[in-house]
Amino acid sequence: MTNQQETMNEELYNKNFWYADWSFPIFVALLSAGIFAGTHMYFQYHIGAFNDVAIVAMLEAGIQGAGYGAAAAFGASFLFARILEGSLVGILDIGGSLQTGIGIGVPALLLGAGITAPVESFALSLITGGLLGIIIGYVIIGIRKFTVGQSNSTFGADIMMGAGNASGRFLGPLIVISAASASIPIGVGSIIGAAIFYAWKKPVAGGAILGAMLLGAFFPISLD
Amino acid sequence: MEFIEIVIKSIIIGALVGFGVGAGAARMFHAPKVQGMGAFRTLGELNACAGDAASHFSFGLGFFFNAWASAVGAGAFTQDVDHRIIPNWAAAVLMRKGKRPEDTLHNPKKMAIAGAIIGVLVVTFLNSTASAIPESLQAIAIKVLVPAANLLINPIMPVIFWLAALDAGKRAGLWGTIFGGAAHLIMGNAVPGIVLGILIGKGVDDSGWSKVTKTLLITVILLFVLSAFFRGFDINMMRGFNLEAPSWLIDLHKMIGFEVK
């Protein structure tokens, strides 16, 4: 992908820690330990989940008692698809595999099964994330060994990416609608926020939430 | 006390994530020979900044404000912290004084260290400012957000993914429809089924019924059968068609520990 490939010899790619196949699981483990611990932060303090609002909200729906099924199925299927794709194309998409799969899908699976310890404890969350990362890293390197050169399909990843981005766009208007159904001041706030963010060419969803919160601070609604 | 706890945890998380993202991003430049991690769009954006430190910094900054709003409002960092902010700011730090991207951005060791430092700063900043927001305000955000997200999960995302599958060709559309419908019946949401349907359909489009695509189809069917069993869908389906569920099947459910009424 760069002209560097010619100048750098094969030896470097095979032996050097920073480039080798065998070190890949270590990098995945570190990253996924951090991401899983980020979900621990969200579970504990309601901050710090490494994902988009729309996807974190699926987990939140589960925490609020609406069932973890959607988050678990969504996250797990993304993880599955991205591991396959990642090993075939040489770039693992961390958004689908780690941030959504490990950060949302696996916690939802665990919480749905009533296993709360790995998400509740910071140390356990780091260990769980790290172990899962090592497994994923080795699976990818393993698939690579068997399939590289056999297949040059991206398995429709571009289509899923496009659909994922298209559904993200729905969130802005949906938040305004949902805010407008919550109460009149909160609705007005989210409309103004969304309009300002649109004018600034920023994602509408962010403005809608901030606007709703701002007016909600002055005109609170009951939260039961 | 809780604040200090959040800061310490944030430093650890930021360092881990930043290290992984930095090394993974630099390795992407050596793909497909070296297995990288990040995203195709991250690779494209890093290239688009053409090794200019100021471009990398301002590109990251644009997403940083968005991530900040999202972190304060809903406790969600957005995926851009890992995809855009850390890799671009790490590149900007390394490339100040006009160093060449080949010696900086493409070097996993340098990017991992710079990424870890940026990660600590970004995660700690986002978490400590977000935790300063009163809980009543966060509650409003959630009250607004959860109904919106529920609508998004069902029916909006299934419909968008489904239409994308139908537009992606005959095979993707067919498998997407079959597995999407089955996924909604069994799991309560069609998206995972449609995603797997597209995966199989496009895989066969591109490389035929190879060993990889056959294994994929069998794995997916197995996944559906197993999750149908563990959710008691098999028995519910028989009853739905006014059939008597055989007692050995009910016993089997009982034996594995997933009793059905």
UniProtKB/TrEMBL annotation, chain A:
InterPro entries: DUF4310. The chain crosses the membrane at residues 22-43, 63-84, 96-116, 122-141, 170-198, 204-223. Keywords: Membrane, Transmembrane, Transmembrane helix. Coiled coil: none annotated. This is Membrane protein.
From TrEMBL, chain B:
It comes from the Bacteria. Pfam families: DUF4311 (PF14188). InterPro entries: DUF4311. The keyword Transferase does not apply. The keyword Transcription does not apply. Keywords: Membrane, Transmembrane, Transmembrane helix. The chain crosses the membrane at residues 6-26, 112-133, 145-166, 178-200, 212-230. This is Membrane protein. It comes from Lysinibacillus piscis.
